[in-house]
Design a protein that fits this description.
mainly alpha; two-stranded antiparallel ribbon; 3% strand; globular; transmembrane; ABC_transp_permease; cell membrane; Inositol transport system permease protein
């Protein structure tokens, strides 16, 4: 019994589980240092989930993109544009359902264009999505006139941000639903296995009969769709559409994915790890605010986290 336990300890992959170990360490450290400031109170914990919900949702989709050995830098700008188109649709009096459809269609269209340029014209995804990041942000500024578009529809506000169901924030419910769907797709479906295979070796995948272009197009459309949902959650929580939504989110999203154990080089992905990475980043940001650090200092810490995330991503590929 003891020898089996020692064998399990020796065979334990510390690198693969580093995000869970780090998350526990972060919780213990801030619980001790911020115990008198309400760090572990129910209100603050729920606040962390609210603050990280949009990042977590986009990160789930980004897990598929990076697992397929691609990247999407446009998710933050897509979220902003979807929030604006949704708000403008409601402002025009077209109703809740039409507004939701328009918002989702905005994200799907951007994802489709990204995927089409990557798969059909063979432009590297880094360049395609970098350009799309600027295009989507510019469109959001243009059609909104750089002004906030107020949202007055109470049903939208409840469903996409401010609602609570049996005391559980609607943002947390959205996150849980997306995580469960993402985990199922990645681990239990042919699509998930083909996504990992595409990222692991696209040539071998092609010879084995996988349509890698279809897979890549699908993951980019998924990223656009989740970014649109995140944008509507931003809009519902703040009761307005703003072109500033999602600024810098792409970096936090990518950091969460890589920190969670998904390989930056494709072929390895974990949805659960991604969400833990996202929550850990949100927890650190929350704790830094409680400690009185300003935004500039928080950005320094986020930069360090991204470097560490990429470093662990490199190690996991060797």
């Amino acid at each position: 019994m003891q020898s089996k336990m020692l064998s399990n300890i020796r065979n334990f992959d510390w690198r693969q589980n580093i995000v869970y170990i780090a998350f526990i360490a972060v919780l213990i450290y801030f619980s001790i240092t911020l115990g008198d400031q309400g760090f572990l109170t129910q209100g603050n914990i729920l606040n962390i989930f609210r603050q990280t919900a949009m990042i977590s949702i986009m990160a789930v989709a980004m897990t598929f993109v990076i697992s397929a050995a691609e990247i999407d830098l446009s998710v933050g700008s897509t979220a902003a544009l979807a929030a604006i188109t949704t708000a403008l649709t409601m402002q025009a009096g077209l109703g809740l359902i039409v507004a939701i459809i328009v918002g989702l269609a905005t994200g799907l269209l951007i994802g489709f264009i990204n995927g089409l340029l990557v798969t059909k014209i063979a432009i590297p995804s880094f360049l395609v999505t970098l350009a799309m990041m600027m295009i989507a942000r510019g469109l959001a500024m243009w059609i909104s006139g750089t002004a906030a578009i107020p949202i007055l529809n109470e049903n939208f506000i409840f469903l996409f941000g401010a609602g609570n169901v049996f005391g559980i924030p609607i943002l947390l419910i959205w996150t849980l639903v997306i995580v469960v769907i993402g985990q199922f797709l990645l681990r239990k479906t042919v699509f998930g296995r083909q996504t990992l295979a595409t990222g692991g070796n696209d040539v071998a995948s092609t010879y084995s009969g996988i349509n890698i272009n279809r897979i890549k197009l699908s993951v980019f459309m998924g990223a656009g769709l989740m970014a649109a949902i995140a944008g509507m959650l931003y809009a519902g929580r703040l009761q307005a559409g703003r072109f500033t939504f999602g600024e810098g989110d792409e970096l936090s999203v990518i950091a969460a994915v890589i920190l969670g154990g998904t390989s930056l080089f494709g072929g390895v992905g974990t949805v659960v790890g991604t969400v833990i990475g996202s929550i850990m980043i949100g927890t650190i940001n929350n704790a830094l605010i409680l400690q009185g650090l300003d935004v500039s200092q928080q950005q320094v810490v986020q930069g360090v986290i991204i470097i560490l995330a990429v470093a662990f991503g490199r190690k996991s590929k060797k």
